[in-house]
């Protein structure tokens, strides 16, 4: 019980520090959302004092508030689920923009991450089991693919499969000429899967090599353990030794990394979403940075931080449950 309380306290303090930094960093940058939006509106025409005051109140820009008062006000808004209003897409709330982009990112990046993990772990376990054979030739090729930049792989896939062969669309998450927006129909689901194939393939190609190499090395180390030798001496079938004794134990470190990867799924793949013009959180973040949309930046960073900390906390709980040594070393 002490172990779980210590981990809970640690992540609570980390979350408070992350939220505090999320509040302070934009205020240390030059300019503010009110000034930026006011300048944009003044380019298209005059802004009356009443409109200026309304925008100031809507964005929460109160001149006579101290930094501490703004900090308390910021926490109050967080408790109410209010992340502010986007300057880029004024007057749309930040929560609405993130809620619209989050399903696309989780669906695409999450699925591609799971496929990459399962594929890498499976091939890595097999390569470790068949070490010293032709299977080891998979390691250099997949490692090379992992070292390739995301955007280069994405552009190469677009050139080959979209521009040259014309098999897949170049941009977008669905056919905007056929559908006015997301809807619940098999035709729309098919369009989404069709448009998501190349972005997902980009993620898998760029990340499967890391899982494969890590699992292969852990598999080789696990096969040298005494309990593997004992299982072989008992005359157990190779299939059982491979699945029950070797693979299950060798996959433990990779599971921790997989938990962290799932946390970062919320962040999306920034370059990939930008190249394919995919309407996910990554593309939303780039738009916020380009337009100095501080409220949107804060909201996206907050969601990413909470997702990563939640994933790490859950993995800590799982590790504490399945490995008693973790509790005894930290409790």
Automatic annotation (TrEMBL):
InterPro entries: MetI-like (IPR000515), MetI-like_sf (IPR035906). Residues 102-319 form the ABC transmembrane type-1 domain. The keyword Membrane applies. The chain crosses the membrane at residues 7-25, 101-129, 150-172, 192-213, 255-276, 296-322. It holds the Pfam family BPD_transp_1. Keywords: Membrane, Transmembrane, Transmembrane helix, Transport. It is a multi-pass membrane protein. The keyword Transmembrane applies. It is found in: Cell membrane; Membrane. PANTHER family: OLIGOPEPTIDE TRANSPORT SYSTEM PERMEASE PROTEIN (PTHR43376:SF1). Belongs to the binding-protein-dependent transport system permease family. This is ABC transporter permease. It comes from Isoptericola hypogeus.
């Amino acid at each position: 019980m002490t172990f779980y309380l210590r981990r809970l306290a640690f992540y609570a303090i980390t979350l408070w520090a992350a939220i505090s930094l999320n509040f302070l960093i934009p205020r240390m940058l030059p300019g503010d959302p009110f000034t930026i939006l006011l300048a944009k509106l003044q380019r298209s025409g005059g802004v009356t004092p009443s409109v200026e005051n309304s925008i100031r109140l809507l964005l929460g820009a109160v001149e006579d508030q101290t930094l501490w008062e703004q900090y308390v006000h910021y926490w109050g808004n967080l408790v109410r689920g209010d992340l502010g209003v986007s300057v880029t897409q004024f007057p749309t709330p930040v929560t609405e923009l993130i809620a619209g982009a989050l399903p696309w990112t989780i669906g695409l990046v999450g699925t591609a991450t799971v496929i990459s993990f399962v594929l890498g772990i499976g091939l890595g376990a097999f390569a470790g089991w068949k070490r010293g054979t032709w299977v080891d030739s998979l390691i250099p090729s997949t490692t090379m693919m992992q070292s390739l930049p995301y955007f280069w792989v994405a552009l190469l896939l677009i050139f080959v499969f979209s521009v040259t062969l014309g098999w897949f669309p170049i941009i977008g998450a669905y056919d905007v000429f056929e559908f006015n927006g997301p809807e619940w129909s098999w035709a729309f689901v098919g369009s989404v899967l069709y448009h998501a194939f190349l972005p997902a393939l980009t993620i898998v190609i760029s990340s499967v090599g890391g899982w494969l190499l890590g699992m292969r090395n852990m598999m080789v180390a696990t096969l040298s353990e005494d309990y593997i030798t004992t299982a072989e001496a008992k005359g157990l079938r190779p299939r059982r030794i491979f699945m029950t004794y070797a693979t299950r134990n060798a996959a433990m470190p990779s599971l921790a990394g997989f938990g962290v990867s799932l946390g970062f799924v919320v962040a999306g793949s920034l370059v990939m979403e930008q190249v394919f013009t995919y309407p996910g959180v990554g593309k939303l973040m780039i738009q916020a940075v380009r337009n100095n949309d501080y409220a949107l930046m804060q909201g996206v960073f907050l969601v990413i931080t909470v997702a990563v900390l939640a994933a790490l906390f859950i993995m800590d709980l799982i590790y504490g449950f399945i490995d008693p040594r973790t509790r005894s070393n930290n409790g």
